[in-house]
Write a structure and sequence with these properties.
Order of helices and strands: HHHHEEEEEEEEE
Number of helices: 4
Structural class: alpha+beta
Number of strands: 9
Shape: globular
Strand content: 35-45%
Largest sheet: 8 strands, antiparallel, barrel
Helix content: 10-25%
Radius of gyration: 16 Å
Number of domains: 1
């Protein structure tokens, strides 16, 4: 998935390959997410609560114990004031809520993967380092929350698309603090598989 390149958002740069995020770009040099986001992604972000309300009952019906066990992670209004997720390495768990189509389960939980947040000047970058679906993009400060805009890397792809180039790969979400050293990235209406993706982030160190 994509984020920023050498002259992206507010001068941010994302290193390429290795354990760092693949280079990604946005068409805008702004550090204001509203000027960067596509119209489709602005709409997805506006409808974040609708995504929760559509996906959570399906997930709860599919596995009520798993939903209850995660506490604030699956509480739509569970976001807390406090510090944004700092730069560093994280363990990230991906949860897919509300399956799209009859072939998809309404609740899927994946094992933890390595993720990284990196300072990029006025914004930060986020990169999921392993797995078959790997978001990569930029994190824009927005009050008590942080807005994520990026794209999706699939399989063994190593080069990220520019954000806004392929709407099927574009991703938009909100990074929120939900506890002590615990954050979640909420991705409403992803293009594939689910109605809502939730990524839990906890520091790896």
């Amino acid at each position: 998935m994509a984020g920023c390149a050498t002259t992206a958002c507010g001068g941010a740069s994302v290193a390429s390959a290795g354990s760092k995020a693949p280079a990604t770009t946005t068409a805008s040099g702004s550090d204001d997410w509203r000027r960067v986001a596509t119209s489709a992604d602005r709409d997805r972000l506006r409808r974040w609560r609708d995504a929760w309300m559509a996906a959570l009952p399906k997930a709860r019906a599919a596995d009520p114990a798993a939903i209850a066990a995660q506490g604030a992670l699956f509480a739509p209004d569970g976001a807390l004031a406090g510090p944004a997720a700092p730069a560093g390495r994280y363990r990230c768990r991906v949860f897919k809520l509300g399956g799209k189509g009859s072939a998809m389960r309404d609740f899927t939980a994946y094992p933890a993967f390595d993720c990284r947040i990196t300072d990029e000047g006025s914004v930060r970058s986020f990169y999921k380092e392993s797995g078959s679906q790997r978001p990569v993009g930029l994190l824009f400060p927005d009050g008590d929350r942080t807005v994520f805009l990026g794209t999706l890397l699939l399989g063994d792809e190593r080069a990220a698309l520019q954000y806004g180039q392929d709407r099927d790969r574009d991703m938009a979400g909100v990074l929120e603090r939900i506890g002590e050293r615990r954050w979640r990235l909420v991705l409403p209406y992803p293009r594939f598989e689910s109605l809502l993706d939730v990524v839990e982030l906890v520091p790896a160190e």
